[in-house]
Amino acid sequence: MNKHLNLQLFADAGTLVNTSVNYANAYDASSKTEFSGSNTLSPTLKTFYDTELLENARCKMVFSQFGKKQYLPKGRGKTVEWRKWNTFPRATKLQEGVIPTGQKFGMTYKQASIDQYGAYAAISDRLELRAYDDVILGATEEMGASASETMEYLIRDALLTGTNVLYCDNIADDGSKVGTPTSRATMRVITNGTAYYKAVCERERAGGTTASASDGWAKLTPDMVNKAVTKLKKDKVPTAAGNKYVAIIHPSVSYDLRSSKDWVEAHKYAATTELFNGEIGELHGCRFIENPDAPVLGGEGYKNKSNGVTYATYFLGKDAFGIIDPEGGGLEMIIKPKEEIGGPLNQFSTVGYKLETNGATLLYPERVLRVMSVSSYSATDAAN
């Protein structure tokens, strides 16, 4: 955030700005952000902080880049509707003088409603003595991060409800396929090389299992990426970015792809292609977007019983899910001065935000392909 922005441009008449630090102040340069006679933030400065909050949130969002947004004006309720025209079958050969059977034409509806989320922090009067505007700007940055993380988790968890899933093959150390898992429970969750792998196998044998070093592990490989892209093509899923699909991937999983000879780093095509937030590269007709909030699922019930985790990588086609876009961005900064809320001794103020969102609504389940894998980089990432 640019702390050298000229806040005088946002100040109401009668508001002085401390030009040495560009913080807006009421009454004199040593005072705090202007509040009106009713002890509320001046409207122009509130707009400024609302805008800063929204921008801080947007710069950290990954999943929401790919949702189909449906605008919701103020005063129009909290529910929106997406409409999808039903497809026609292939035409039949016409016979002279015979009227063919007509097809029904209609549409499918998907509805969703916004809910409210929010958080706030209390600011003590002693902390205010430092610089009230400094505190608000800092809170705006951190709450923007909180709002974006809330939004990201709501979207990714909605996508987890989809049933279009592939499980990565179990690959041995020599690169050969030694198993095709059909569930997370049959995936090999092994990492850190052969020595670690053998140690896990020994623990399994002690528990009466028959694991061996030939069982392999189910990491995401270039071949699995090719399989995922091919499945989307076979299902006639339209591409999400030009002529390419996109995939949202955890950093521990992208580690296994970036050493591939076919991997293309994003900076090599950035001059001719606008990059998405978090974009790291391209492989087999799919652009990869790295996100540490991509699902990391806990290891209970896995075959190796080694505290391993599995990762979900989302391969997406066009408009796979819908997001409600409330007028004003759905984010509001709420600042309560100590004179209004600080108790009998005016000991604290509060800074908070409210977020209005539906998270995500699956519009085309076939356009979200979840690929489950492990990582050769880490088997101990915390489940999120």
What does this entry look like structurally?
It contains seven helices and 20 strands. It has helices at 43-58, 125-128, 132-159, 193-206, 222-234, 251-254, 338-341; strands at residues 15-18, 23-26, 68-72, 79-85, 107-113, 115-124, 165-167, 170-171, 177-179, 245-249, 264-265, 279-283, 286-290, 296-297, 310-316, 321-326, 331-336, 348-357, 361-362, 368-373. Helix content is 22%, strand content 26%. It starts with 14 loop residues before the first strand and ends in an 11-residue tail after the last strand. A hairpin with a 2-residue loop joins strand 12 (279-283) and strand 13. The chain has a domain at 171-319 and 364-373. Strands 7, 10, 11, 12, 13, 14, 15 and 20 form an eight-stranded mixed sheet that branches. Strands 3-16-19 form a three-stranded mixed sheet, with helices on one face. A three-stranded antiparallel sheet has the order 6-18-17. The chain is of the alpha+beta class and 384 residues long.
| Poorly predicted segments | 1-39, 191-214, 300-307
Structural class: alpha+beta
Q: Count of DSSP E strands?
A: 20
Q: Quick one: biggest sheet?
A: 8 strands, mixed
- The 3D shape can be described as globular
Q: What is the oligomer described by this structure?
A: single chain
- SSE string, helix = H, strand = E? EEHEEEEHHEEEHHEHEEEEEEEHEEE
| Rg calculated over all Cα atoms | 27 Å
Mean pLDDT: 76
**Approximately how much helix is present in the residues?**
10-25%
